[in-house]
Amino acid sequence: MEFKAVNFKKASPVWLRERGDEKNITVLMQTFISADNNTEIHMAGHCSYQVYINGEFVFFGPARAGRGYYRVDKLPIGKYLTEKENKITVLISGYNCDNFYLLNEPPFFCAEFVSDGNIFGQTGSDAWKMFIYDRKIQKVQKYSFQRTYVEAYDLTKGAPVSSDGLEEAESVICSEKAFIEREISFPEFPEEEMLRFVKGGNAVYNYEKEAELLSSYKGEPLDVVSYVVADSIDLSDGACPDGKCAELYNEFAIVEMKTNITGFIKLEVVCKNDATLVMTFDELFIDGKVNRSRMGCENEIIYYLKGGESYTLITAEPYTYKYLNLMSVGGEISFNYIGIIRLDFNQSEIVKKLNSKADEQIARIYDAAVQTFRQNTLDIYMDCPSRERAGWLCDSFFTSRVERLLSGKSTVERCFLENFLMEDKFKYIEYGMLPMCYPSDHPSGNYIPNWAMWYGVELREYLYRTGDREFIDNAKDKMYALLNFFRRFENGDGLLDKLKGWVFVEWSKCNYLVQDINYPSNMLYYLFKKVLCELYGDDELGKEAAVLRKVIREKSKTDMFFCDNSVYGEDGAAYLSGEVTETCQYYAFFTGVATIEEDPDLWNTMVDDFGPERAQTGKWEKIYPSNAFIGNYLRCDLLRMNGLNDKLDENIRGYFDYMAKTTGTLWEHNNTSASCNHGFASHVLVWLDHLGYID
Question: Whose CA, among 77, 105, 409, 680, lies 20 to 30 Å from 579?
Answer without folding.
Answer: 680
